[in-house]
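Human: I would love a firmer grasp of how sequence relates to backbone shape in proteins. Could you go through the record with me and say what the backbone is doing? Here is the record:
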Amino acid sequence: RPTYFGGLTQSEVVGPTGLKRLGIDQAEPIITSVVMLDAARYLNDGKPLAAGYAITRVDIERILAAEGLASRGIKRGDALFIHTGYGAAWANRPSTYYTQGPGLSHEAAVFLSSKGIVLVGLDNPFTDAAVNQRGAGAFPPPPSWENGSNAFLPFGVHHHNLTLAGVHQVQNLNLTEMAQKKVHLGAVFILPIRFK
């Protein structure tokens, strides 16, 4: 029996015409601090992360240290942006951009939600790491699945963030300029679109 963020049941969340609760149409504006992790710079010498690369908790802590943010860390209420460099493929390889990309591992998503972040945003098409497998389409590699072994839960990071942890997600961000200017801390204003 499904349980959603806040302990809500299926009948409390899902109605015959859509979501009764937890929909973006009911989300509050997000006005908060943002931490931008430059994964491309600190994990791959400035080059885009490979499709299927699943960013781990250790990777996140390494990037925070490299950016001089280890003592600040990630605080409750923060938004987190991750520059993977993969966003360049949106213009350079538009026919394959939405078929795969780097993203978060499941254990990293659990770690981030335990810190109390309100949103995670990446410069790629998915929050999960995904690789386009011939004949099967885009699926996360096994290390990013829930508990690392659940082959029946593709996009387990989405599942964790959206249904269990209440963490909003944004994809396809243009983080290139922030990365180039080494803007690792800032403020973000996000007004959710009121569609149902």
